[in-house]
Automatic annotation (TrEMBL), chain A:
Organism domain of life: Bacteria
Listed name of the protein: Helix-turn-helix transcriptional regulator
Pfam families linked: HTH_3
SMART domains according to UniProt: HTH_XRE (SM00530)
Organism listed in the record: Fibrella aquatilis
Chain segments annotated as coiled-coil in the UniProt record: none
Residue span, HTH cro/C1-type domain: 18-72
GO molecular function terms attached to this record: DNA binding
From TrEMBL, chain B:
Transmembrane region(s): 12-31, 37-54, 84-104, 116-135
Source species of the chain: Fibrella aquatilis
Protein name: Uncharacterized protein
Superkingdom of this protein's organism: Bacteria
Keywords: Membrane, Transmembrane, Transmembrane helix
Length: 93, 140
């Protein structure tokens, strides 16, 4: 089927936690889109992994969530945040 | 974007939009309407399809808005669509040139040129938005 594949245009897939973090903070797609200056549909494409953001947009999104960029985006499938935090805690202790 | 049309229905609408002028014109002539009336009905059909397919769906805006009104994903999509539209238009022009070079009869005279002109004009003017409507996935 002939559909424009933005993932192909941008290379390897980048996984993200945007949907989870957005819902956790009670933001709509429109609210988040307004905060980072994109169309609300672009947030939908990002959440479904159908579009890889530019570094600029990725940094803006991470700043909105107040998290380091590697907690929001990853080349590998992301584990639940609780697991990630437990691993971090173990490393620190 | 205030309303959305499912992808399958959109593709049918795009095909209808691109072909409705010549079809309505031919049907008009078959019903023995005048050239001008057939042409007018064809243009009304095209405008109707454009309003249905592009008004309120965002495809016209995405296909024609200045760069500063689009975000990074929309710009990428549009750049790709313009490239495809350029290939489509270039192919159309080359095909017409080949027809002219190899001596096939091109339409001549106002009555013949009018439907030919409007068919190509409506296709060329709406091609970027038509490709967008054809290719953009449903946004859930």
């Amino acid at each position: 089927m002939f559909v424009l594949d933005i993932k192909q245009m941008k290379g390897e897939k980048i996984y993200n936690r945007i949907a989870l973090l957005r819902e956790e903070r009670g933001l709509s797609r429109k609210d988040l889109a307004d905060q980072v200056g994109v169309n609300f549909q672009t947030i939908g494409y990002l959440e479904r992994g159908e579009y890889n953001p530019s570094l600029d947009l990725a940094m803006d999104l991470s700043a909105v969530f107040g998290l380091p960029i590697d907690m929001v985006f990853s080349r590998q499938p992301l584990r639940p945040l609780s697991e990630e935090l437990a691993t971090l805690k173990n490393k620190l202790t | 974007m205030t309303r959305s049309i499912p992808l399958r229905l959109r593709r049918v609408a795009v095909a209808v939009q691109l072909l409705c002028y010549p079809i309505v014109f031919i049907v008009g002539r078959w019903l023995e309407l005048s050239v001008s009336l057939s042409s007018l009905l064809g243009l009304v059909a095209v405008i109707g399809m454009i309003v249905y397919l592009y008004r309120g769906t965002g495809f016209w805006q995405l296909g024609n808005a200045p760069d500063n009104q689009l975000d990074e994903r929309q710009l990428q999509v549009r750049n790709r669509v313009y490239r495809l539209a350029y290939i489509g238009v270039a192919t159309l022009v080359l095909a017409l040139l080949l027809v002219a070079i190899f001596g096939f009869p091109l339409p001549q005279g106002f009555d013949d040129v009018q439907p030919f002109y409007w068919t190509i004009a409506t296709i060329v003017l709406t091609l970027p938005s038509a490709i967008l409507a054809w290719t953009e996935p449903d946004n859930i």
